[in-house]
Design a protein that fits this description.
Strand order of the largest sheet: 3-2-1-4-5-6
Strand content: 5-15%
Number of helices: 12
Number of domains: 2
Radius of gyration: 20 Å
CATH class of the largest domain: Alpha Beta
Shape: globular
Distance between the termini: 50 Å
Order of helices and strands: EHHEEHEHEEHHEHEHEHEHEEHH
Oligomer: single chain
Length: 346
């Protein structure tokens, strides 16, 4: 059966959108002659700018901050007459929107809060990476999509903005750059600021690296705190670059050091090695850095994981999952990945 118009719905966090980009490409490659649309929220729309596999990005402002709300978005989707909706986001509202918008076939996961509104359910495999789980949504049509790395497509505009920002901070694309992403909306997914400061200082002093702290405007105070602990200062890009501009910067970096958050997956999408620190969450949940050449740091504890997304505070009140990770072991792995990248660059 052919599908003229396909809609992918993912209205969660930036990292979730990045991890859905393989599904975009697989849909266009396996369901040829189809137009693919993508529905997301305002905070993440920048990530899909320039994506050559998409007909259109539809923005749904579910928090009602001035953009199209539920009913306006519903009417927009209904007018498209969607043949197939692929819904990796397991929320009640995402499935309901697809149903009310009269999407003919609606494929989602068996664990979706809105599974009553789906025409077909796919088993949510806990033993798979999120990319593979998302690709499994195509299995209803007998398609066995092969694993694909995520993709982002910063253009000349994004690279020019980054180059200008770096120049203003006495750096450039010719320097050895390392991006450090210390933030997360969940407190239990953030490694200690003093740990990041110590690693950044050692990179600057011992490796002669230009260290750039990346993140949203909400991470700026955290980044300022980290910089305040250091003698040799990093470049603070938090709140200075859009998501796609940050992806452009990441593509020019030797590597990325990140918590279990969106920059991990952005690094994979830009084919830049990443070392990811896991605290309250675990790689087995399926959100580890996909592909080869990356690193994971974690401590095996009885209380991990204490949640799927992380928490605002440690339920055991000791926060050992992050406190027991030393700056020395993080720096050792970062240094190892740096040297591997240097060898490949020769």
């Amino acid at each position: 059966m052919g599908y003229n118009k396909i809609l992918i719905i993912q209205t969660a966090f930036p990292g979730d959108v990045v991890l859905t980009t393989p599904l975009i490409r697989a849909a266009t490659e396996n369901l040829q002659h189809s137009e693919v649309y993508f529905l997301l929220i305002p905070d993440t729309q920048d990530l899909l700018k320039n994506n050559p596999h998409l007909k259109e990005v539809i923005v749904y402002d579910k928090k009602r901050k001035g953009g199209p709300g539920f009913w306006k978005t519903l009417n927009r989707v209904r007018r498209l007459e969607i043949d197939l909706a692929l819904i990796p986001h397991r929320s009640f509202r995402s499935a309901l929107l697809a149903k009310l918008a009269r999407c003919k076939k609606r494929i989602g996961f068996s664990t979706s809060a809105g599974k009553i509104f789906l025409t077909d359910q796919v088993v949510y495999r806990l033993d798979r990476h999120e990319i593979e789980r998302n690709l499994s949504l195509l299995g209803f049509n007998g398609i066995q999509a092969q694993p694909i790395l995520p993709d982002l497509f910063p253009g000349s505009e994004e690279y020019a903005k980054v180059e200008k920002f770096l120049s203003k901070n006495h750096a450039g694309f010719s320097d050895e750059l390392v991006c450090i992403a210390p933030g997360s909306i969940w407190a239990t997914k953030r490694w200690l600021p003093e740990g990041f400061a110590r690693v950044a200082e050692k990179l600057i002093q011992e490796e002669k690296i230009k260290v750039i702290l990346i993140g949203s405007a909400g991470d700026k105070i955290l980044a300022d705190n980290i910089a305040g602990m250091m003698k040799k200062k990093p470049i603070n890009a938090c709140g200075e670059l859009s998501l796609l501009e940050s992806a452009a910067l990441i593509s020019k970096a030797r590597m990325v050091l990140s918590n279990d958050s969106a920059p991990t997956h952005m690094a994979v999408a830009m084919r830049t090695p990443v070392v990811t620190i896991f605290g309250s969450t675990v790689p087995e949940l399926g959100f580890y850095p996909y592909g080869e050449g990356n690193g994971i740091i974690q401590k095996q504890l009885y209380c991990r994981p204490c949640g799927i997304h992380g928490r605002n505070r440690c339920p055991e009140k000791h926060f050992r999952c992050m406190k027991e990770i030393s700056a020395e072991e993080v720096f050792e792995m970062v240094q190892k990945k740096l040297n591997e990248k240097r060898v490949k660059a020769r």
